[in-house]
Amino acid sequence: MAALAATAFTTPLQAETTGSDITVEITNLRNTEGVVRACMTRDEERFPRCQDAEQGYRVVVPAGEATVLHFTDVAPGTYAIALLHDENDNGRADRALGMMPTEGFGFSRDARVRMGPPDFDDAAFTVGGESSRQTIRMRYML
Amino acid sequence: MDTAILLSALVMTAIVALRYLATSGLFAWATARLRPGLYDGLAPQIRKEIFWSLTSAAIYGAPAGIVAWGWHNHGWTRVYTDIGSFPLWYLPLSLALYLLAHDTWFYWTHRLMHQPKWFRVAHAVHHASRPPTAWAAMSFHPIEALTGAIVIPALVFLIPIHISMLAMVLVIMTVMGVTNHMGWEMFPRWLVHSSAGNWLITASHHQRHHDEYRCNYGLYFRFWDHLCKTDKGLGQPAIRP
Q1: Nearest CA distance, B164 vs chain A (angstrom)
Q2: Per the domain annotation, does B113 fall within a domain?
Q3: Quick one: which of B20, B38, B49, B236 could link to B139 by a disulfide (CB 3.0–4.6 Å)?
């Protein structure tokens, strides 16, 4: 748990000194098992997974404490957030038959999952100089 | 945008075609193993069945692809992905509603296509398979294919359904379409010859439609056939010369 707590801080992948803070309220988590992995990126190609994203911020918190997340020191730009309720904490979205996610997900602007995750544009929001707050509802396909 | 729609239609056509080849191929292989010789001498007919089925794949794929595109990009349809959007008891109910609606549409369009005029135009292709094989599942004239292709793309606008139940509808549609034509009964006797079997359509029932034409018109269920006195009971699909 100590290790988990240690990772609960934002890890800006690119050094920024003066940015704004983004606060995310999470609703509808169905249990307190595992962790919530949050990824916020400017890179359309790396959304929603943030893998190797240059313009990315990540937060991991135990699901039991994940009612509010903070991204700190965020550089201005257009971003999208993806949340994964990684119930077994294995670092990825588990899927049934390799297709349907069995773990919960949520996206900024509550962008909907239809045939696959939403496009970056549907989840995109602008970060200016000021701190902001938003709510994301978790959804479960199975 | 137009190219995205076209691409979606093409991708869906490819998926439908591959689904057909995989499923029919699997059951044709099973037939060769379990009922060796059943398709002997039918190679020319099977080639025609595959030709008409692949043509039908485009007719099924286009509307499905357009609707899938509109669903993803514009939120069309009442397909939902969040399991919490409806109560859990609605999952089996939605599955039943889809199968019943499809069955009803199929029964009446099928009876229409057995009117002599429509039969010649639209349905003779399907009955040219004598006896049908596992490859005949989608062997339809384009007009008949169209009557089948619009059902699910229309229903998703009318009846809410979770994506997993929609997948289930497609699996049932695909597997029953193939196995009802493959010439032998894969379900156990205790089910086929039971009171439940009296309401369900499997190969034993549909084979008789292909043998005798003017009976056993249903798709999944037998109540329309019972109600309209068109049910002649089960045939003997496995005992064929």
Answers
A1: 8
A2: yes
A3: B49
Sign of the alpha-carbon torsion through A102, A107, A112, A116 = negative
Q: Which residue of B has its CA nearest to A113?
A: B81
Mean pLDDT, 10 residues at a time, over chain A (142 residues)? Answer: 44 61 94 93 87 79 88 92 94 89 95 91 92 94 93
Contact A115 B82 (CB under 8 A): no
User: Could you give the residue ranges of the DSSP H alpha helices within chain B?
Assistant: 2-34, 43-74, 90-112, 116-118, 124-127, 142-149, 151-158, 163-179, 189-192, 203-212, 223-227
More confident residue, B50 or A44: B50
Return the pLDDT at B237: 64
Mutating which of A136, A141, A142 best tests the B interface, going by the most B Cβ atoms within 10 A?
A141
Q: Does residue A142 belong to any structural domain of this protein?
A: no
User: In total, how many domains does chain A have?
Assistant: 1
Contact B164 A116 (CB under 8 A): no
Segments forming the whole domain that contains residue B134: 2-185
Give the residue from chain A lying closest to B91, CA to CA: A142
In the prediction, which pLDDT does B2 show?
80
Instruction: Give the pLDDT of residue B235.
Output: 86
pTM, entire model: 0.89
Chain B residues with at least one Cβ partner in A under 8 Å: 68, 71-72, 75, 79, 81-84, 163-164
In a domain, B210, yes or no: no
Residue A100 lies in a domain: yes
User: Residue A19: its pLDDT value, please?
Assistant: 84
Contacts of A113 in chain B (CB under 8 A): 81-82
List C-alpha distances in Å: B131 to B57, B206, B209, B238.
Answer: 22, 11, 11, 12
pLDDT in tens, B121-131: 999 999 999 99
The whole-angstrom distance between B168's CA and the closest CA on chain A is: 13
User: Are A114 and B82 within 8 A, CB to CB?
Assistant: no
Residues 6+ positions from A10 with CB-CB distance below 8 Å: A57, A58, A59, A70, A71, A72, A73
**Domain enclosing residue A117, as ranges:** 2-137
- We report the CATH number of the domain holding residue A6 as 2.60.40
- Structurally, chain B folds into a number of domains equal to 1
